[in-house]
Amino acid sequence: LKHEIRASLWERYISHVTTGGRPVSSYLTLYSPPLMDVKWFAQKGVIHFDGEKYAGVVGIARDKAAYAAATSQLRGRLELLLHGDINEILARPAKYQISAKQLDGRFPFQAINLDYTNSLFSQSTHGDISIHLQAIDALLAKQNTSGATTFALFITTRGERGMYAGQFLMDLRQEIDYNISRTEGFRDTFSSTFSCGDARTLANRSHADFISLGIVKLVTGYLKDHGYYIRECDAVWLMRDRSSGSQMLHLAFLVQRVPSPLLATRVSQVGRRRYRLFEKQVVAFVGKRAKGMVRSLRESTDLAKCQKLHGQVIDRLAALSFEVQVPEPEQN
């Protein structure tokens, strides 16, 4: 099921940021063996493997066992593997000073894969903003200051209602309701798609629709703060309905810098154009849901089909190993 997301979602978005069929120059990912995303992208030619290393690939390993295993001398290596929690490296760099400094030197990235295994704002979060969101904010700031113009951003998060803090869900409802009250195009598309007129009703009827739309709205706001807008976005759900019960939301964004004339002026007409620029893809995302283009992959109905489609590829990729040249882990 996961490989269907790599092949049908991630690969398609990365292809948007390559030029003339050339590989991406830089890719940031979370290191978790066996790094199937890197192997797959290399096989498809969107990451360059020169026989020794996967050029431009930076991995961040939180798990010390995985970090240690990665140092074994095997076939191929990442260009750089850093140790630490990516959220803390980005949002609280003092804790991982060496890794933070090395990561800063690698910006900007053409593709970023935040393939989290938990939620963006868990019930145990203390404070008004989670470490995940602080990290995303810091990452976008670094993309901006380092001159990124177009890049692919992947965010994976748990989707179950019980995985989120109540205040965060309330904030998402308020964001959606504000959009409904302010934007006629969004209000009409929302109403015709979900057959309701407010976010609370949507959340009660379909938490999956609510959380996916809410997080797209959230990311739109963070991008806007750093001078970016969404050129395209899609979502795929992965439902482990026969095993763990987890519901993973995979979001893909094609991100573009806001044209400089819209940043440089405050003329009301341009201001309205700028607002529509940010909201256009949020409306389009709801429209995709109306057309059945927000997919749900379920173990109960799709696993056998995906195994038949991707099984041989997965076995071949899993057999490839990595040699990763890394600095010593920082002592914390």
Report the C-alpha radius of gyration, rounded: 20 Å
> So what's the overall shape?
globular
Helix content: 40-55%
- Describe the largest sheet: 8 strands, mixed
Low-confidence stretches: 264-271, 323-332
The ordered string of helix (H) and strand (E) elements is HEHEHEHHEHEHHHHEEHHEH
First-last Cα distance: 37 Å
| Global structural class | alpha/beta
User: Which strands sit side by side, in order, in the main sheet?
Assistant: 3-2-1-4-5-7-6-8
Roughly what is the average pLDDT, rounded to an integer? Answer: 89
In short:
With 332 residues, this protein is α/β, with parallel strands linked by helices. It is built from 13 helices and 8 strands.
Model description:
It is a single chain. It is globular and about 55 Å long. It has an eight-stranded mixed beta sheet, sandwiched between helices. The two termini are 37 Å apart. The protein has 13 helices and eight strands. The chain has 332 residues and is an alpha/beta fold.
